[in-house]
Amino acid sequence: MKQELLAPAGDIACARAALAAGADAIYLGLPAFSARAGAGNFALSEFSETVRLAHLLDAKVYVCLNTLIKDSETDAFFESALTSWNLGADALLIQDIFLGRELKKRYPAIALHLSTQAGCCNVYGAELAKDCGFSRVVLARETPIEEIAAISNIIETEAFVQGALCSCFSGQCYFSSFAGNNSGNRGRCKQPCRKLYSLDREGFEERAYALSLSDLSVGARVRELLEAGVTSLKIEGRMRREEYVSAAVRYYRALLDGAGERELLAARSALARTFDRGDYTEGLAFGQENLLSRKVQGHIGERVGVLEVKGGKYFCRGSARKGDGFKILRGGKEAGGAVCVRAEEEGFYLSSEHKLRAGDEVRITTDTALRERLLGGGKRRDVALSLRFMAGELPEMRCGRFIMTGEEPLTAAERAPLTAEELISCFQKTDTLPFSVTFEKVETTGAFVPRSALNALRRAFFQGLAEYLAPAREPLSPVEGECALSPVPSEKTAVIAENLQGLKADILIYKPRDYAKIAAEEVKEGEGEKFLYLPPFFTAEDERAVLPALPLFDGVYAEGSWGVKFAEKYRKKLFAGTGFNLTNRFAAAGVLEAGAAYFALSKELSAREQGALASEGAFVLTLGSVKVMDLCYCPFGRTCKTCDKRGEYHLTDEAGRSFPLRRYRTAGKYCRFEVYNCVPLAGADVGAGALVDASCRTDGAYLLRRAHTPEGALAGATKGHAERSML
Asked: Coil, helix or strand for 592?
């Protein structure tokens, strides 16, 4: 497949902007099951119109059905998937890999792409996706370039090149869910990562945007991604405006088409003016060490000058238009906003509600003239017409092999017969269709055609041509399927802990501080089956580090679905962790069929929903710590030389809530971190195995004793989603 530039379409205006700017494909959401519930999304009529427009421009449309699907919603999910496909979607993006497998089993013709929310970051994830019927994986944003090349040898890959970066590893964020019952896995993230926090480490006590990452912009390094085998270059931004979508597509189109330096600089400038958080980062794929935008959270635009005070008024040298918007920075921090109220040859005057100072940095965030340029004109499809309008004959209109004739012969003109110029003038109008018309042959002699009839013929011809060039898909018929689970009450217990001493449980899950230094004597502590905890982001380098210690364990507890193939390769039992995000019976049955001995149900389900899925091998997190984020970067900006290297820190928000921040190391050069909820969990026993988490606690033995009777076990604890499912 040729390289693909893939653009976001939060609504129909963004879809049109992306296609006009030269996108090879767009991705969008329908009213249900979209991971961007806050985007405009598409009614079915808008979706059909957009599919036709895209296909006329030889572009593809991918539909995002990439939220977690609860058991009560599976019928509606399959219906939405079938409807999307029948209306012309070129592929469906799915987060739930096992639900996707069931969809592919029912409808083999449907093309499936595995969403970035599934966290595919290594070859094992790629192999599982391929086995489950997916033709493409959308790579986790954290995937290193070496891993991308290896994955691309197994399955088609799609990589992000531009847009917002999630603070948490893809698909593993529960911060919004536990902080406010708005699940990111359901498309309703409230972005707690963009808020102010202080950290209890010297030099980081002042509140800042401690978890907010700069926007990704790989720029010219797209070439390295293509050389690594990436097929699709993806721009993030279904919540962004159409001028941003247009600017982003135009910038990467210019890069891919080999534009000159001057054109590239202009395109880059346009992109920064439409949305720029943190002056961009090239991201973890290329090993960038500091991704944080601690001082400014939102759009900072492009620097255009320095503020002067002229006659008591704010002035900046350069060009602007009345109504343009600006952000003013002082010492890197936001000092206020401003708007252009008057422009002169030497510069422009600003008005602001804030007290600004000479020397403040002026950055343009709304460029009205640029917006007009970005949204004017765009890509069209060339069509060459031949027209024959002869008196006494049926009118004939032709484009290539498509021919349409009128229903009645044309009458002879008594005076002022139809001219070739009139025909050309009429058929140059294409209404809303993206055609650029030229004429191969235009013949007319002595015919009379009323203007209304001529316009009707033109509209019918172009409508017919559009249907010929972008034909409707032959619809698939609904296929039913069932999946029954046999409830098996379980008294088994499992514990996640970094110190196994004194612990006795059916399953002990060892969670080391340093994966390259796992000591046999530590693993031997405790009584029960021993499993090694594997984090969701797991690279080939990490694999090499843990291999010497694998013989010490009976199995692995993996937080990503890639663990299926990893456990299979090394012939270890698999405990599919809460990071698998299992929320329905197809997923639960699927992970067992894939070889898991045990599995944990999603911690975002209610106790009633968990109970309905409590089959053999099922566990539910009932007590202890609740991990809400996995960070693959350092919240201290990798200031390693001055780091005190404590095992635990605390993030404190503006409401005074303190969130434990656990530090650990894999095989990589730098530390990784986990964020835990500000209060522990004391959920409910639902008749499944009980999983307790002592990651940030020293009372593992007590937690195990209360694992099946969690209510009231911990002071100040939350019940989590036990009584209230994720929205």
From this structure: helix
Class of the CATH-defined domain 302-374: mainly beta
Sheet holding 197-199, edge to edge: 197-199, 648-653, 658-665, 671-676, 627-631
The CA distances from residue 189 to 122, 180, 449, 696, in Å, are 26, 9, 59, 25
H-assigned helices in 22-68:
44-56
The answer to whether 189 and 173 are in contact (CB under 8 A) is yes
Contact yes or no for 121/139 (Cβ under 8 A): yes
How far apart are the C-alpha atoms of 307 and 329, rounded to whole Å?
10
Does residue 669 register a pLDDT over 80? no
The domain ranges of the chain are 4-165+213-285, 302-374, 381-469, 493-633+641-705
d(CA 277, CA 269): 14
Q: Please report the beta strands in 459-547, taking only residues with DSSP state E, as ranges in sequence order.
A: 493-497, 504-510, 527-534
What's the pLDDT tens digit per position in 284-341?
A: 999 887 899 999 989 999 999 999 999 999 999 999 999 999 999 999 999 999 999 9
3-class DSSP state of 82: helix
Give the whole-angstrom CA distance, residue 668 versus residue 542: 7
φ/ψ region of 528 (left if φ > 0, alpha if ψ in -120 to 50, else beta) reads left
Asked if pLDDT for residue 641 goes beyond 80, the answer is yes
Question: 40 falls in which pLDDT band (50, 70, 90)?
Answer: confident
Q: Residue 685 is encoded by which pair of tokens?
A: 């026993």
CATH fold of 493-633+641-705? TIM Barrel (3.20.20)
What are the backbone angles phi and psi of residue 391, rounded to the nearest 5°? Answer: -60, 135
Give percent of the chain above pLDDT 70. Answer: 100
DSSP 8-state assignment for residue 722: S
Q: What is the DSSP letter of 286?
A: G
Eight-state DSSP code of residue 142: T
Q: Which of 17, 578, 437, 564 is nearest to 242 (CA)?
A: 17
pLDDT, position 488 = 83
Amino acid at 534: L
Q: Over the stretch 178-222, which tens digit does the pLDDT of each residue have? A: 988 888 998 889 999 999 999 999 999 999 999 999 999 999 999
Give yes or no for residue 727 having a pLDDT over 70. Answer: no
Domains 302-374 and 493-633+641-705 share a fold: no
CA 561/CA 98 separation, integer angstroms:
9
Token pair recorded at residue 561? 């679905």
Q: What are phi and psi of 53, to 5 degrees?
A: -60, -45
Q: Considering the entire predicted model, what is its pTM?
A: 0.95
Please give the Cα distance from 439 to 383 (Å, whole number): 8
122 neighbors 151 (Cβ within 8 angstroms): yes
Span 5-37, pLDDT tens digits: 999 999 999 999 999 999 999 999 998 888 777
Is the pLDDT at 236 greater than 70, yes or no? yes
CATH superfamily of 4-165+213-285: Copper homeostasis (CutC) domain (3.20.20.380)
